[in-house]
Design goal:
Chain A has 670 residues and is mainly alpha-helical. Chain A contains 25 helices and 4 strands. With 220 residues, chain B is mainly α. Classes of the chains: A mainly alpha (670), B mainly alpha (220).
């Protein structure tokens, strides 16, 4: 039994787990379902890891599916890597759900779809023909859609509708992309597509556009991200973690598989320009959106948009270098992208799980109603802080490694031949630096307002630490973030089979750097990074400072209320709020990007009504694209509606005129 | 098949086509019915000739069905309807005859331009027959949309169906069962139309289909 057989059997087993959950009494059965899901995910994770290390592609053809094509499955280095991401996320969220599931009131609407969602994601990555890829892709969309609408919140119907429309859009775009790739001969197996690659530049342009629209809308590229901040927060928190941390990565897998594998012979340097431009805008807009939010889960969802932008920057750079034959630089850029895929899946899952713990403990997602939770939920606060540091790309955690690698590949971009890319890429680099800094600001806000200061509501005052399963899951994720950051050379080395498959180059082998465990992206050793040394330095200097403070200062400490600047009896409402913290940035960027307007209502002296400040923001994606689009659609539909009320003769005339027009096209074609 | 056989089948198919033009031109209902009967007769001859030259005896059955049904039974019953409803003198035309005829010529050219390049590998006979049949079908559709009277619409539909039979008989290897079922479906359609015409007339005192639109349920 090969690894591929095991993967397939595991995915089918996940589907089977979903079935009996319909029959069991939900209150008693959720532990069985999540336990079984976790066990299967762990096995699949082990198999995928072994297969990535083994590095030999396995294929399997099943006699079903599309007539004449069959179901093709393939397990190569790239799919192994993404299977690791999927099943790691699956196992940890299942572990979390073992505890969190007890609070779930609508088990029947979550239990059947959770394992099948995981199974669908596994199958997308395993698929090796367009038909089974799209079937699995749609299954992934539908099961996650069912999970999104499982909650009963005010915005659930709208989230479900927008998600459904965008998911259908993405599948249709990918369908067209595969249609172009298959050509007129119509070989839908990926092997056939590889054997008969597209050659014309315009075909490549169409495929690139369709992939950016199809996979991009699923991953969350601006301005197609609109479903993501609606759908991700609405789902139960362990599902949010899975959707934000893992499903967006499966979309990225689709983009990589098509662009770097199936359409690889058509790669041209100008492909990089639209990818980089869209990615840069996505990264910046994602973090700016997030800064404007005070709903914790929505803030995290917008950060997913930002990180998808960062990953696509890596992909765009890899395209540019690959087209110019700079395999070493392409390998670095793609390593950065893939490592960020893994990293983001880890810390975004961690943050969503932390947000879920807070949501369960307080019933609040609005951080302006939270505060002071570090005293009530110290462990959750610590893990959330670790996740925040990781996503803010602080060394020695993992987020820094992948962003550093991205910058390393940006730094070699002057060696490219194309003048336009020479100018574009530094601009993207500056955008990325700005986005990274703003992300740190945003997580200072998210962590500070949620966990520090005074409680702003009774719910926050009476919060309790979450259960052991949830804490274990978060601890494992935080540990993974730290370990990847400490041994960056080993983790990047493990990715190299996939990198070599797609770019033909690899990073230098570990041990090449100036010190053990140093990561050197280029063999000539211009720069290197060593997380372990930074970690040791931080431990030593931090420990020394702590010792000095306690030795000389602790006895003189007087403990007062947090953030009261020595003024006792401070009202919790006098604290920083999410909106006030981000006001400077809103003033700099918001007026242009979100047409932010502040309305200050200051009553004159003597008037006792409270003063108020109201901020109005508008979403540029809706304002510029979706609202006009919907209006246009309405107009067209109203016009077309007239066709429903024609006389019989006019209906016939309509059909007749179409037949004649089509015949004329056929005649002109010859 | 020699060139004589080719000429004769071409000649018969062309008569069917010319009858279609005559249908377009004819404004009086009784005249329409008579021209339709002539067209059906020409069709029966064309099919019978095909049966002869292709040595396909089952096509004789098709020809016989066309002769009995379309040249005999249906025109006879349509005449009865017209007399019963006393609409023999009705003259109706939505689009002027000149424009209709010009459109008909255009459609015939279009049919030839579509079929000739597409069927270049076929033998000459089949190719030309197919072009003529397509032209007849298009003319039948044109007639259905340029007439307002239910009876002339029925005749347009039947003329369209004549084109289908001509196309089917020209293609080798068309099984009899297809033709029989087509003939029966036409007969059933005719009955349905006939019953409807009487019901409509009883209720609304007209068989002008455009008049009926005012009685539709979905109009606001």
């Amino acid at each position: 039994m090969t690894a591929l057989h095991t993967m397939l059997a595991g995915a089918l087993l996940l589907l089977l787990i979903a079935l009996p959950s319909l029959a069991w009494r939900p209150a008693a059965s959720f532990r069985k379902v999540y336990g079984a899901t976790m066990a299967v995910s762990l096995v699949l994770l082990a198999v995928a890891s072994a297969s990535l290390a083994g590095g030999i592609a396995q294929t399997l053809v099943l006699p079903m599916g599309l007539v004449g094509t069959g179901v093709h499955l393939r397990l190569d280095a790239l799919s192994s890597f993404f299977l690791i991401v999927v099943n790691l996320g699956g196992a940890i969220t299942s572990l979390y759900a073992l505890g969190y599931g007890a609070h779930e009131t609508r088990q029947r609407r979550v239990l059947p779809f959770f394992p099948s969602f995981l199974a669908a994601m596994n199958l997308v990555v395993l698929a090796d023909d367009a038909y089974s890829f799209l079937v699995a892709w749609e299954m992934m969309s539908l099961t996650s859609w069912a999970l999104v609408i499982s909650s009963r919140e005010k915005e659930t119907p709208r989230a479900g509708l927008v998600y459904f429309v965008m998911a259908s859009f993405s599948a249709i775009m990918l369908l067209f992309a595969f249609g172009i790739l298959a050509g007129s001969a119509g070989g839908y197996a990926f092997d056939t597509i590889r054997a008969h690659p597209i050659s014309a530049w315009w075909m490549g342009a169409i495929v690139l556009t369709l992939v950016l629209l199809g996979a991009g809308s699923k991953a969350g590229l601006f301005p197609l991200h609109v479903w993501l901040p609606l759908a991700h927060p609405t789902a139960p928190s362990h599902v949010s973690a899975l959707m934000s941390g893992v499903m967006t990565k499966v979309a990225i897998y689709g983009a990589i598989r098509i662009l770097f594998d199936l359409a690889a012979p058509a790669i041209a340097w100008w492909w990089a320009a639209p990818v980089l431009a869209v990615a840069g805008i996505t990264a910046l807009m994602g973090v700016l959106y997030a800064l404007m939010q005070h709903d914790l889960k929505r803030l995290l969802a917008y950060h997913t948009v930002e990180n998808i932008g960062i990953i696509f920057i890596g992909l765009g750079l890899a395209l540019a270098f690959r087209a110019s034959g700079m395999t070493a630089a392409a390998a670095v850029a793609l390593t950065a992208a893939l490592l960020h895929v893994l990293n983001h899946s880890l810390f975004k899952s961690l943050l969503f799980l932390g947000a879920g713990a807070v949501l369960h403990a307080t019933g609040e997602r609005d951080i302006d109603h939270l505060g002071g939770l570090i005293h009530k939920m110290p462990l959750t606060a610590f893990f959330f802080l670790a996740g925040s540091a990781a996503i803010s790309a602080l060394p020695p955690l993992n987020g820094f490694v992948s962003e550093w690698l991205t910058f390393q590949s940006i730094l070699v971009s002057p060696q490219l031949d194309q003048a336009s890319l020479k100018f574009l890429i530094p601009v993207i680099g500056i955008t990325l630096a700005l986005a990274a800094a703003l992300a740190a600001t945003c997580f200072v806000k998210a962590f500070g307002v949620t966990f520090l200061g005074h409680a702003r509501s009774d719910a926050a005052r009476e919060a309790r630490e979450t259960d052991r399963f949830s804490l274990t899951a978060m601890a494992l994720l935080a540990l993974a973030c730290l370990v990847i950051g400490l041994v960056p050379d080993i983790t990047t080395h493990l990715l190299q089979p996939a990198i070599h498959l797609l770019t033909g180059g690899t990073l230098p082998a570990p041990g090449h750097g100036p010190a053990p465990l140093s990561l050197t992206p280029f063999a000539n050793g211009r720069s290197s990074y060593n997380g372990m040394i930074i970690f040791i330095f931080l431990l030593l200097s931090g420990g020394l400072t702590a010792w000095a403070v306690h030795r000389f200062g602790s006895h003189a400490v007087a403990r007062g209320d947090a953030w009261d600047c020595g003024t006792p009896g401070l009202n919790p409402r006098a604290q920083y709020t999410a909106a006030s913290f981000s006001q400077p940035i809103r003033r700099v960027f918001g007026t242009h990007f979100f047409s932010a307007r502040e309305e200050v209502d200051m009553p004159p002296p003597g008037d006792t009504r409270p003063a108020s400040i109201r901020v109005r923001l508008s979403d540029p994606a809706w304002q510029i694209i979706f609202t006009p689009l919907l209006r246009l659609l309405h107009l067209v539909v109203e016009r077309i509606n007239l066709l429903q009320r024609l006389t019989i003769r006019r209906f016939l005339a309509l059909v007749f005129i179409w037949v004649v027009i089509l015949l004329m096209v056929v005649a002109a074609w010859h | 098949m020699g060139s004589t056989g080719f000429d004769i089948s071409h000649f018969l198919a062309t008569i069917v086509l010319i009858c279609s033009f005559a249908l377009l031109y004819q404004a009086r209902l009784l005249g329409l019915i008579h021209v339709f009967a002539v067209q059906a007769l020409a069709l029966a001859l064309a099919v019978a000739w095909q049966a002869h030259v292709q040595a396909a005896p089952h096509l004789y059955v098709t020809a016989f069905i066309a002769l009995v049904m379309k040249a005999g039974l249906i025109p006879y019953m349509l005449r009865r309807i017209v007399h019963k409803l006393q609409i023999a003198r009705t003259i109706e035309q939505v689009v002027s005859t000149n424009i209709t005829m010009l459109a008909g010529v255009f459609l015939t050219i279009l049919a030839i331009m579509v079929v000739f390049p597409a069927a270049s590998m076929e033998t000459g006979l089949e190719r030309e027959d197919l072009a003529l049949a397509l032209a007849i079908i298009l003319l039948g559709m044109l007639m259905m949309i340029t007439r307002r009277n239910a009876i002339s619409q029925i005749i347009g539909f039947m003329a369209l169906e004549n084109g289908l039979i001509l196309a089917a008989s020209g293609a080798r290897g068309m099984p009899l069962v297809v033709e029989v079922s087509v003939a029966f479906s036409v007969l059933i359609a005719f009955f349905v139309f006939g019953i409807f015409i009487f019901r409509i007339r009883e209720r609304f005192d007209t068989i002008d289909v455009d008049e009926l639109s005012a009685h539709r349920g979905d109009m606001e």
